[in-house]
């Protein structure tokens, strides 16, 4: 299984050029985090909602311990946003990095 992780920039670009359907139907398991979705406008979230509901785009659940891990990454890597660190944690947990 090949995993593709999406941060807000990727999702915004794909939404802007109207290639959401084509991108999310590539032969990869697509993942993002709730923190990434929070950075999108409600209209952008609405476009992605059917893909989430159909299990095409997986939104990783992050519990309190996960939030603490993200905070540790954020403290360690000042150049990354908290949301970027959430994607890094997801990648690490999926053995994608």
Helix content: 55-70%
Q: What gyration radius follows from the Cα positions, in whole Å?
A: 13 Å
Largest sheet: 3 strands, parallel
Overall mean pLDDT score? 93
Beta strand %: 5-15%
Order of helices and strands: EHHEHHEHH
User: Helix segment count?
Assistant: 6
Structure summary, number of beta strands: 3
Shape from CA axes? globular
Structural class given helices, strands, pairing?
A: mainly alpha
Unreliable residue stretches: none
* End-to-end C-alpha gap: 14 Å
**Lateral arrangement of strands in the main beta sheet:** 1-2-3
Polypeptide structure, described:
The chain is mainly alpha-helical and about 100 residues long. It is about 60% helix and about 10% strand. It is built from six helices and three strands, in the order βααβααβαα. The chain has helices at about 10-15, 20-25, 35-40, 40-55, 65-75, 80-95, and strands at about 5, 30, 55-60. A three-stranded parallel β-sheet has the order 1-2-3. It is globular and about 35 Å long. The model has no long low-confidence stretch (mean pLDDT about 95).
Descriptive terms for the model:
58% helix, 6 helices, 3-stranded parallel β-sheet, 10% strand, single chain, 97 residues
In short:
The chain is mostly helical and 97 residues long. The chain is built from six helices and three strands. The protein has helices spanning 8-16, 20-24, 34-38, 42-53, 64-76, 82-93; strands at 3-5, 29-32, 57-59.
């Amino acid at each position: 299984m090949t995993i593709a992780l999406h941060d807000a920039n990727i999702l915004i670009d794909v939404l802007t050029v109207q290639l959401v359907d084509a991108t999310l139907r590539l032969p990869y398991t697509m993942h993002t985090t709730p923190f990434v979705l929070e950075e999108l406008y409600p209209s952008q979230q609405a476009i992605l909602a059917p893909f989430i509901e159909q299990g095409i785009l997986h939104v990783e659940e992050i519990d309190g311990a996960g939030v603490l891990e993200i905070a540790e990454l954020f403290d360690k890597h000042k150049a990354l946003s908290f949301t970027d660190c959430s994607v890094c944690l997801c990648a690490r947990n999926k053995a994608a990095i």
